[in-house]
Amino acid sequence: MSKKFKCILCGHLGGNITSHKPRDRKELSIVDCPECGHRQLFPLLSAEELIEEYNEDRTVRSTTVQIAPGSDFESMRKKFAEWTQIHADMYWDKLQKCKNVLNLGSGYGFLEEEFNNRSGKKFNIEGDDIGQFRIEHFVGGICHNINFMTDNIPDEMLGKYDLVMALHLLEHINSPVEYLRRLKPLLTENGSILIEVPNLEAFLCEISPEYKEFFYLYEHVSYFTSKTLAKVLEKAGYNIKKIYTKELYSIENHINWVRTGRPFIQYNQMFLPDGRLEFINEEYKKTIGEMGKGYALIAEAVI
Fold first, then answer.
1. Confidence class for position 1, pLDDT limits 50, 70, 90
2. How many CB atoms are located within 10 Å of the residue 152 CB?
3. Contacts of 123 (CB under 8 A, 6+ apart)
4. Among 27, 135, 136, 208, whose Cα sits 20 to 30 Å from the Cα of 259?
């Protein structure tokens, strides 16, 4: 672990320790940079520590095991069904305009599967070598085994992609500016990058103190606001087209947090249980997103 605080966005030495702690690693701290305002984990876990932690994580293990009972995989498909549907709906219009799309850190590949089912198109996705097996054999599609922080990009991928997507990935990266810089050669001349991260300024953080503490976890190095996400992209040499937010979780989820102070674990609570009530949910989520306080903080940028 690094023992001296250094902002991973601006490089400033020394930070202000907040009262927050990662819910799963209380010995770590959440620190604000007094120079640029970025909020991040401290101390940072080393690459070796991260690998060890992820290897011990049951969800990650179930993602990466090569030969696993189909029931395990299908249970995860069911668990992520609402998440998959919402993101497919959010980005479907954008993807239809693209010839080649690269989705980074795609986990089980359920989103790619949904896109393929809708269009018959195969999307290029990035995963590790074992996760690659799961995607290619259980979901279907093309998967690249590349660490963009250390590996050279194959010639056939250079300048290929109309859109590079990184959904809930950047908050896990120890060097987000350098990571984004290394993605630029993937884009076509008019290509764009789409980033989605959890929003530090989410409405639910305001109305539920319990959720505000639950929001922090050790796997997330960075906690972005619209301002700090913009700074990362600008430092990496991108021109920002727009930054906006979308609320992913339902009004039911928010009420549950306010009433109980605990997560609801039976299902994701992104839609209401009766579709006839969904108009209430849609209006609520739309309003929060337009306030800039949706759970998903989204940036679109070009070179």
1. very low
2. 9
3. 95, 101, 102, 103, 112, 115, 116, 141, 142
4. 27
